[in-house]
Every structure is written in C-alpha cells, then in structure tokens.
Design a protein that fits this description.
The chain is 35% helix and 22% strand. By secondary structure, it is an alpha/beta fold. The protein folds into two domains: 110 residues, Urease, subunit C, domain 1, CATH 2.30.40; 274 residues, TIM Barrel. Strands 1, 2, 3, 4, 5, 14, 15 and 16 form an eight-stranded mixed beta sheet that branches. Helix 5 links the parallel strand 8 and strand 9. Helix 3 crosses helix 4. The protein is globular and about 65 Å long. The two termini are 30 Å apart. The structure holds N-(iminomethyl)-L-glutamic acid (NIG) and fe (iii) ion. The site of fe (iii) ion (FE) has 5 residues, from loops. This is Imidazolonepropionase. Belongs to the metallo-dependent hydrolases superfamily. HutI family. It catalyses: 4-imidazolone-5-propanoate + H2O = N-formimidoyl-L-glutamate. It comes from Nonomuraea coxensis DSM 45129.
C-alpha cells in the first residue's frame, strides 16, 4: 500500500457539493484513492510520500464527457470558410467519414492516443469517446474497439449522419439492428445526432430505445443547430445527458429541470462555428445540472482544452468561475453517471490537477495561459511520455 500526502495546497476545489473549497488544505491518497482531505493542520501522519505543491491551487481532474476522437484528416478549409462567413451545417461530417474509412487501425489509434495525451497534459483525466465517423458496421465497430483501449466511456454514434448514397430508413434499420449488435460489446452509451439534416424525433427514439434494449445508457446530441425534439426525448428516456442544448424552448428547460438528465454545454462548438452560445444562466437558474465538455472533433470544435471551455463559459455564457469549474468536473461526472471521478472526497480516484495559480478562478481570469503544473491520475504523476508523446505508437 502506498500512501501519498499532498500538502501545501493554497486552495483546494474539491468538486464535492458538500464541501467545495478548502483553504490551506492537504489530501491523503492510498493506492490511488482519496482517503482523507481537510485543513493541512489536521493532516494524518504516516504517509510514505509527500508532495508539497507550495501554495498552488488543486482541482479534480477535468471530466470531458463529450469528445469525438476516432477520426482521420482535418477540416482546416471548412473552418477558414466559416470564418469568412459560411454557416456550419454538419455537412462536413461526411468529409471526415471518408478520411476515417481510408485510415488503417494503427493510424486511427495513434491519432486518438495523441489527443488523449494532449488532453491529459491539460488536466483531463477522464474522457468519453464516441464513434460516428465510420458509419458502416465494420468502421463503427473498429472505431469503438480502438476507443476501448483509451477509455471506459465509449459511445456508439452510428447515427451521426446518414452516409452518402444510403436510404435514410434503411440506415436507421441498420444502426438499430446489425450495427448496434456489432458495436454494443464495445460501448457503454448510445447517442444520436437529433437535428434537422441528421435524424428526426422518431428515428432518434427508435435507435436510442434499441440501444437501451442492448444494455446501453443514453446520451443525445440535442438542439445544437435549432429547436427540435432532442432534449425532450433525452429526458423522456432517462438519458444521462442532453448535449449542446443551444436552442431551447421553455418546455425543454422544464423537462431538463424535472429530469435526471444533465445539460452538457459545448462552448468550443459555438466558438468554432461562430454561433450564439447556449443560455447557461437560464438552465442553472432553473436548477438543471450543467456539464461543460470540449466536443473535441475536427469539424465543429477542434479543441482539447477544458480550461478554454471554462473560460468561454465564464466570459460568454455568464457562468461564474465556480459554476464553470463545477460543470467541468462534478458536472461531467454526473453526465457520465460516475461517482469515482469529478470530485475529491474519500473513496474517489485521486485524480488531481495542480495549477500554477492560487485559485481555479485563474482558468478564466488568465485565458489561454497553460496553468497546469502537474497532473496526477489515480495518485500517479503523469510524466514525460505524456508531455512528449512519441509520434508513432502501436497499440
Ligand atoms: O457534436 N453535431 C454533431 N457532431 C459533432 C460535429 C461533427 C463534425 O462536424 O464533424 C458535434 O458538434
Ligand atoms: Fe459532438
């Protein structure tokens, strides 16, 4: 058994609603699990190792509950066109599908691993990874199998768009049938892009309920580009999360408030598509649990930085710094229905981010500044191989 005392913590943001902030704190981890935290003056003795963070702030590792990391190619030209006034429609998804289908397993795995490491360097210790750029039975299956090497939080998103040249009804039957059967062993969640131009309410319901019958939990890409039935379906089916939530009616907000479904906001997407941000205040004021995530993907949000999303949430979505850090840690864990991450309290995994700052507020106050000093995952320091990922890794 290895016991490590993290000491000299100027401000500990715990993510635990019962005791969110502790000043002049210490935390004891044993075998990768938090066993005690509190005022440093009361710290128990007996630890074999001591990490003195010299007055810095400590937060739980970020929980990025929405990312699309299994893909090939990039969409720089599409981004440039948008920054010259073109709207985002989701049509570019097919460009990435073509590149992903052409790529070999090793290329997809290496690229996804590099993104996971890029995230880890920036303090993300839990990440969800979706399929959705394969859109054939085999390409979706292999996307998810590759994702399982990187995270436990894998999501089957065969219903991302209807692939070119395929009839929509045939495709929905395929996704809810043969594709789901092939993918379910590698997935924890099922997701549908419920949007005009992607899948309508009936198609969404059919695919999600088939996923539930196969034992998967539900999450939904909902109300990103316009109002629609996505959020209400998510709440009806008891989804863990409705993601995007950019265009909401009063009925959508009420449905979220009266459900156990988290609203996951993805401000990187609004930033990168130059779209209006979701109204986080309206959701928070209605008592909805809010998560923040990157939506990391080559089309609508090619950022891996949770700190950037926190800064956007504070500046552009009128969340307070406390609400934003809570959404990026505790909120993300609720969106994945995880009790072992997203907060620091006895029994939780010792995922700690030491900030080169006196407070988590600096994540928004000093936007764009690399404030992550050290990252501990399960009590272990992420080291050089994470800081400098090799260019070729064969999994
Ligand atoms: O969450 N909205 C659907 N899916 C992604 C974007 C995918 C893409 O443009 O490649 C999203 O924003
Ligand atoms: Fe997404």
């Amino acid at each position: 058994m290895t016991a490590t005392l993290f000491d000299g913590i100027g401000l500990l943001y715990t993510g635990d609603p019962e005791r969110e902030e502790i000043t002049d704190a210490a935390l004891l981890a044993e075998d990768g699990v938090v066993v005690w935290l509190g005022p440093a003056a009361e710290a128990p003795g007996g630890a074999e190792e001591r990490v003195d963070v010299a007055g810095r702030a400590v937060i739980p590792g970020f929980v990025d509950s929405h990312a699309h990391l299994i893909f090939a190619g990039d969409r720089t030209a599409e981004f440039q066109a948008r920054m010259s006034g073109e709207p985002y429609t989701g049509g570019g998804i097919r460009t990435t599908v073509a590149a992903t289908r052409r790529a070999g397993d090793a290329e997809l795995a290496t690229h996804a691993l590099a993104l996971v490491r890029e995230m880890a360097r920036q303090g993300t210790t839990t990440v969800e990874i979706k399929s959705g750029y394969g859109l054939t039975v085999e390409d979706e299956r292999r996307s998810l199998e590759l994702a399982t090497a990187l995270t436990d939080e894998t999501t089957f998103l065969g219903a991302h768009v209807v692939p070119e040249g395929v009839d929509a009804d045939d495709y929905v039957r395929l996704v809810a049938g043969e594709m789901l059967t092939a993918c379910a062993p590698f997935a924890r969640w099922v997701d549908v892009f419920c949007e005009r131009g992607a899948f309508d309410g009936d198609q969404t319901r059919e695919i999600l309920t088939a996923g539930q019958r196969a034992g998967l939990g539900v999450r939904v890409h909902a109300n990103q580009l316009g109002e629609g039935p996505g959020v209400r379906i998510a709440c009806e089916l008891g989804a863990a999360s409705a993601d995007h939530c950019t265009h909401l009616t009063a009925a959508d907000v009420d449905a979220l408030a009266g459900s156990g479904t988290v609203a996951t906001l993805l401000p990187g997407a609004e930033f990168s598509t130059r779209s209006p941000y979701p109204d986080a205040r309206r959701l928070l004021d209605a008592g909805v649990t809010v998560a923040l995530a990157t939506d990391c993907n080559p089309g609508s949000s090619y950022t891996s930085s949770m700190a950037f999303c926190v800064a956007l949430a504070v500046r552009e979505m009128r969340m307070t710094p406390l609400e934003a850090i809570r959404a990026a840690t505790y909120g993300g864990a609720r969106a994945l229905r995880r009790a072992d991450v997203g907060w620091l309290r006895p029994g939780a995994r010792a995922d700690l981010v030491v900030l080169d700052a006196p407070s988590y507020v600096h994540l928004a106050y000093r936007p764009g500044v690399p404030l992550v000093h050290q990252v501990f995952q399960g009590g272990l320091l992420l080291q050089e191989d994470i800081q400098n990922p090799p260019s070729v890794v064969v999994l």
